[in-house]
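Suppose you are handed only these lines of text.
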Amino acid sequence: MEVRDLTLRFGGVTALADVAFDVGDRQICGLVGPNGAGKSSLFNCVNGYYRPSGGSIRVGGVDVLSVPAHRMVRLGIARTFQHPTLQPDRTVLDNVLLGGHSTLSGTVLSAMLALPGERRRERALVTRARELLDSLGLAGVERTSAGDLPYGSQKRVEIARALLSGPRLLLLDEPASGLTHSEVGEVGELISRIRADHGLTVIVVEHHMGLISAVTDHVVALVSGRKVAEGTAQAVQSDPVVVSAYLGAA
Ligand SMILES: Nc1ncnc2c1ncn2[C@@H]1O[C@H](COP(=O)(O)OP(=O)(O)OP(=O)(O)O)[C@@H](O)[C@H]1O
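From them, the structure of the protein bound to adenosine-5'-triphosphate can be written out as follows.
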């Protein structure tokens, strides 16, 4: 992914100002910064929720900003949210299958008529969803209502939902927030394993510096919408501008 001169304004607020960085293929990039730094805004630009005021974002050479938001999944971009956005009354399996919906190539008519090709694709999707749940340690809960799962498991279901679309770029928004200490360690292992198993590029927004240090190849720090540091997790965490921004926000 290549981000160049990315600028996003909301009226008088500049959420992102001339942000530029690259994320290499199959890298895990951490995006850090105090509250209001612009991390979520950047994710929202990458997956088409926000239209930047200027600059460019290219993923796999494709200009993301020229693609309508509903086509982002086909571009290979998927994301999770800080607070899981599951349908609580639907089963875990149904929730994961929602992530594969846009990959079905059949028309509405063929789905309504339940044509054989469509049924085959649906069956393949269910098989894939079950494999993903299994690989994320959720094999026993596919028929449970998503809202009945513990918070940490709901976050994993969201990851499974994102993976079902077969992304090349996965955006993880605060995967460790609200988790216990031991769950944070497990999420770190999970992120590394997902990259290895799925050959993905991952960008992870996270305040938990232990997780950032454990999983990332490269870290970008934003403060007040500007990139202030970039490099290894260790270098960024000891950067004086980053340290003083976090202290100021504490
Ligand atoms: N839809 C919006 N309308 C107006 N201002 C917004 C909107 N979204 C974000 N902002 C502003 O843009 C700035 C960056 O916010 P953003 O949520 O991207 O920061 P963040 O780094 O993700 O913070 P946090 O860690 O608290 O989630 C803030 O000043 C915020 O108030």
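What can we learn from it? The longest strand covers residues 13-22. The domain at 1-76+167-250 is CATH 3.40.50.300 (Rossmann fold).
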